[in-house]
Amino acid sequence: MSALGLRAALVSIALFAAFLAVWQIATRGSGAATGMSPEYAKLMGATATQGKSAMPGPAEVGAQLWEHLRRPFYDNGPNDKGLGIQLGYSIARVGTGYLIAVLVAIPLGFLIGMSPLISRALDPFIQILKPISPLAWMPLALYTIKDSGLSAIFVIFICSVWPMLLNTAFGVASVRKEWINVARTLEVGTVRRAFTVILPAAAPTILTGMRISIGIAWLVIVAAEMLVGGTGIGYFVWNEWNNLSISNVIVAILLIGLVGMLLDQILARCARAVTFPE
Amino acid sequence: MSTFDDPFDPDRVLSRSACVCGRHHSAAEHEQALALRCEQTSSEEKRYEGVVASAVMRAVFPQDAARRAFLRSVGASTALAALSQFFPLKTATEAFAEASPEKKDLKVGFIPITCATPIIMAAPLGFYAKHGLNVEVVKTAGWAVIRDKTINKEYDASHMLAPMPIAISLGLGAQPIPFAVPAIENINGQGITLALKHKDRRDPKDWKGMKFAIPFDYSMHNYLLRYYLAEHGLDPDTDVQLRSVPPPEMVANLRADNIDGFLAPDNICQRAIYDGVGFLHILSKEIWDGHPCCSFAASREFITTSPNSFAALTRAIVDATAHASKAENRKQIAEAIAPANYINAPVTVLEQVLTGTYADGLGGIKTDAKRVDFDPFPWQSFAVWMLTQMKRWGQIKGDVDYRAVAEQVYLATDTGKVMAEMGLAPPSSSYKSFSVMGRSFDPDKPEDYLSGFKIRKAS
Fold this sequence. Notes:
Chain A is an all-alpha fold and 278 residues long. Helix content of chain A is 77%, strand content 0%. Chain A starts with a helix and ends with a helix. Among the domains of chain B are: 27-97, no CATH class; 105-187 and 291-344 and 373-425, Periplasmic binding protein-like II (D-Maltodextrin-Binding Protein, domain 2), CATH 3.40.190.10. In chain B, the strands form four sheets. Chain B has a six-stranded mixed β-sheet with strand order 2-1-3-10-4-13. Chain B has a five-stranded mixed β-sheet with strand order 7-6-8-5-9, sandwiched between helices. Chain B has a two-stranded antiparallel sheet with strand order 11-12.
């Protein structure tokens, strides 16, 4: 097994090296421009004078990444903060929106799962609201909430609520009839039944929904912050894009992926903790 | 020379008999100097001191002749010493400079382009602090966002395109909310940039079918590009494609060949040249020299609820604009606003825009000190012109009361007062005629001007 793991790691490293090599070759410059007067060249950028590729190479991105990792928490005023601070803002927004979504989706999902009547009654609304792109809510949120920070949180809430709601409802509805019947014969009350029988039984499905939700929330926050600006990793991407600083954008993309993976892993751990063998 | 350079100069006339502003010896001279340029005395304190001292001198010697005789006989320094004996000039100056603002911590939104120079630089160079304010300038993603955030009161005041406050007040593209413009940010400072492949197609008549980007529908950029194309016989609605594109994406789109060119605010034009993807076809200055570009805007509500804060803001902006209008300050400004906290652009690019010595993208270096200039006075005739163009291109349907709208949104009188208090010389009228591509515009006859255009949207 460990031999397989070693071989897989070697293949991963080889793939990565190949990727870096292709990247390096693809972003080679086209050679310095000729026949440009030195005064003119002084006014121009490296792309125009030295034929440097507009796309940064791996070394450049690496240096930029190192620069950011060396001082992740600097604060040069409201529009220029370190990557650590920006990620912190984004995670806080996602956390808040996500938490509200959990508080709404899980009780509501229980209700839908336990009552066929409510399930039928709410179904048309859920079906219509679910496929709406969360960013489509943004103008409406800005207009009604009148606060861009809260609007971003609202957008996170609205995008992460559906997978949790549907998964909770599904998990609750598909708890094995035998278990519920056993509870009934033992004359367990509704509330107690919900917490001691249905919740543990439905927990794996609920957590799957939560895991899907956190993934979506992290995808959406970047786009939302690019729209409303101010703080957050999405704003950082936008700000660097403004300066056409592609290497910074790549660094941000890398970190967004990393944090997204971490969030997903945390939820995966939780999911493993509540699974049970049947 | 500024209004009250030195009230202790015996040759100066302080009374208002000579001309309306008191700066010139005759009304004719005043008219001649009407083309406004804000200039400063050596320091702000000096200027305030001058204003206060001249007020005191006027009170002590109501007769101008008596004051001059007095000064001639005793000399200015003795007079100053004598005056400050019984009148605390220093304290009065300080009191004059500070009318305590209702709200000290303000948020001002801006878009990262050189048009916002006065708004931005007022933070690192301390103009807000000097007027008793603690202002946080917040970079914003786009014009629609800055509009919404200002309407939602997340920002107390904002950098806006000059036509935007008019559009907001009229309810075009948003709910009608009364906005006002106490100061124009910059004049000139835009340009038409074309992709390098078009370097031999310099005649606009050959531009049929091309795709151009503009930053926003309610922008001088839109109106000037449409005007320019129409004057060359192209209908901007049918012969070319105009797209609203956020400025940073313009350069990327030009590189990707999605657009053929753009009329953009600077530093974007220069950035396209710097990155070797485009060249400067013309500066917007060649369409209309001295046209307004961006403005400093606030809602009427903010002005009525916090009049002192608003006045202090206006003073800070006028002050910063006056500082920016001086060529010798431009290099320092470029360095102050280039960091990531502000515009976030290479210093070389900003320097080329602000100093006016720039690479044109075709291998030449050009010099034009007025490529971008700064002049705070919100001429109401600018607003009237914008309204004619809004009507021309179908943004406004039906009749419009040009003067009423212009006077409601562009606060020429108030700004003139602030400028006079600060020792600057505002023009005496808030309307002036000008000419755009050789077509003269008379603010008294906007409808005639409008009916003179052959190419316009059929209404």
